[in-house]
Amino acid sequence: MGKLTILNHPLIDHKMAKIRNKETDAKTFRENVNELSGLMAYEITRDLSTKEVEVETPLMTTSAKVLSKAVVIVPILRAGLGMVDGIHMMIPTAKIGHIGLYRDEATLMPHSYYEKFPKEIADATVLLVDPMLATGGSVLAAIDSLKRHGAKDIRYVGIVGCPEGVKALEDAYPDVDIYLAALDEKLNDKGYIEPGLGDCGDRLFGTK
Fold first, then answer.
1. What is the model's pLDDT at position 2?
2. Is the N or the C terminus of the chain less surrounded, counting Cβ atoms within 10 Å?
3. What pLDDT is stored for residue 35 in this prediction?
4. Burial class (CB in 10 A: 0-12, 13-18, 19+), 156
């Protein structure tokens, strides 16, 4: 059964204040999303499995632990890209996949336009990253795609979520753990999280 984890840490809270502020410029916004994602990496990987190996220190042979499963980071384009470097810095051996989704203007349903995953996807721990868990539509579509490609151990990693998105994900995929830096109040009638931080993709890449 998946679980919801809200990460409480003074440094995460400090960076959340920066990215929530509408006066924060794109450069500072990007840097803080990147750093915040790196801080989150410690918690989202806390229970990764390890195996013992023998290593030679400068003095003697000893046992040490290394990860026993591959890790694959999969951002949902485009906003998910802002979280990749911070997590990858903590797990430099991780492979990176990509999934691109667009929303049909008539049906409002997400459709995939790009998918590229490493061959290890089926046996890896997959970190699906997307900053905002709003309606949950894009995340559900991405998880569906990952499962079709054989992924079994999937963890969703976001920055801000709302109760509506969390419920949608928990109902559809109760086996997927959810990690957020903040759980906000609600969705507004335009599908934005309140208080939220606005359109994360636009603020990351300076397109608005």
1. 66
2. N
3. 95
4. buried
Query: If you average pLDDT over each of 93-102, 105-114, 197-206, which comes out highest?
Result: 93-102
Catalytic residues: 103, 107, 199, 202
Contact 172, 96 (CB under 8 A): no
CB neighbour list of residue 127: distance below 8 Å, 6 or more residues apart: 44, 71, 72, 73, 74, 87, 94, 155, 157
Domain count along the chain: 1
Mean pLDDT of the chain: 93
Q: How far is residue 150 from each of residues 11, 153, 154, 208, measured CA to CA in Å?
A: 36, 10, 11, 37
**pLDDT of 103:** 75
Instruction: Note down the domain range covering 121.
Output: 4-205
* Phi/psi-derived region of residue 3, left when phi > 0, alpha when psi is between -120 and 50, beta in every other case: beta
CATH number of 145's domain = 3.40.50.2020
* Cα–Cα dist 175/122, whole Å: 15
Q: How far is CA 188 from CA 31, 47, 135, 144, 196, in A?
A: 27, 35, 10, 26, 10
- Neighbouring residues of 38: CB distance < 8 A, sequence distance ≥ 6: 86, 87, 89, 90
> pTM of this prediction?
0.92
Predicted confidence (pLDDT) at residue 172 exceeds the cutoff of 80: yes
